[in-house]
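Running this now, will post back.
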Amino acid sequence: MTVALASQLREGTKKSHTMAENTGFVSCFLKGVVDKATYRELIADLYFVYSAMEDEISRLSKEGHPVISLIGFKELNRRETLEQDLAFYFGQDWLNVFKVSSSAKAYGERIRFIANTQPELLIGHHYTRYIGDLSGGQILRRIAQKAMNITGENGLKFYDFDQINDQKEFKLKYSQTLNLLPIDQETADLIVEEANLAFKYNMDMFQELEGSLIAAIGKLLFSFFTQKSRRGSTESV
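Update: finished.
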């Protein structure tokens, strides 16, 4: 028996999706308010999360897991692109320099935990992250490029899905795959629940990043008003 998992995930995570988009960090990002220091923290967090996901999905696929092996689309993998971005922002020694937030660590630990206890639940995280990145990636890429004044391709590789020629066609194939997974309704319900938890982990990461972004904005404002004050003092002499 198959279940319509794709539509259940879409409908069952609408509220969480809206909540995530309305976090301070994402709201600022969408408005073009993002700096390189905060963005590279985001990239570091995502690298930790995607490394956990891709490690576990690869392992389970090689072991022939009846469900996970069906959704392990290698063309979605983000670790290599994130490594390129990390090298751009932190330098070639990025592996010994970058730091990961406590919320990203908790996120990665959750992924590894369910991979060893209830592997089917990984689908909730897989759907939330990969399809979200694929759907809104190009918009976020343009915003980030303009906000951080980046020219060329370097620093934004995360948004490149070079192995996917037709994103609309791929998302259709992905949805069809979800709907044909050999799971029952009880498992589908648990996957939707886990997808909502995935959004919660993402929001926790965004909340930590929000603190860094606010600090960065504060420094910019302080610099702006300091320079303005100095110009005013010079003009009055």
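Confidence is low (pLDDT under 50) at residues 216-229. More later if anyone needs it.
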